[in-house]
Amino acid sequence: MRHIGEHGFERATIRGIAETAGVSPGLVRHHFGSKQALREACDEHLVKTMLRLHDEVGNRPLGTLNPVAVMGPYRHYLARALAEGWAAPIFDEMVRIGERWYAEADRDRPDPPDVDPKSRAAVSAAMALSLTVLARHVERGMGVDLDSPQGQDKLLRALLDVHSHPILTPEQAAAARAALDAGPTS
């Protein structure tokens, strides 16, 4: 995963992948058969890691698990997958996880949502994954290295603040909904 994350899937070779992993190219071919099969295995591993993380988040007190640190080793691979357009299985799994979260959260909502849980999950997944692709810009904007404990803490605190304090007042949101319901304006 590290080699593909650094070089991209097209530029990565079995030989380079094996060298990065400290094994022979024959061993890589023996276990995976092809570079495509290796990438699919990497994607499957990443999806399993995301599912494990989802389960752990649900079973631990808020703030005791750092998803940034858990996903850290996979960040460059994930960024490549997103940038090169082959992250569909990963994105789709994030949408499935998010859809369950939104459906559960909707039960306690005082107001009905404007759109279905899957649509909100797709937008949330895209927003969350943008941190991966734009990590260097986020680091520059925040003034921290996201791989450092300080950077991870600052990012988690920023995310917590963003998600726990709405930007719009209920009145502003109602006005925006009314404008959307009225239809497009020129």
UniProtKB/TrEMBL annotation:
Listed GO MF terms: DNA-binding transcription factor activity; transcription cis-regulatory region binding
SUPFAM superfamilies reported for this sequence: Homeodomain-like (SSF46689)
Keyword set, alphabetical order: DNA-binding, Transcription, Transcription regulation
Pfam family, one: TetR_N
Annotated Gene3D superfamilies: Tetracycline Repressor, domain 2
DNA-binding region: 13-32
Coiled-coil spans in chain: none
Occurrences of domain HTH tetR-type (ranges): 1-50
Name by which UniProt lists this protein: TetR/AcrR family transcriptional regulator
Organism (species): Nonomuraea aridisoli
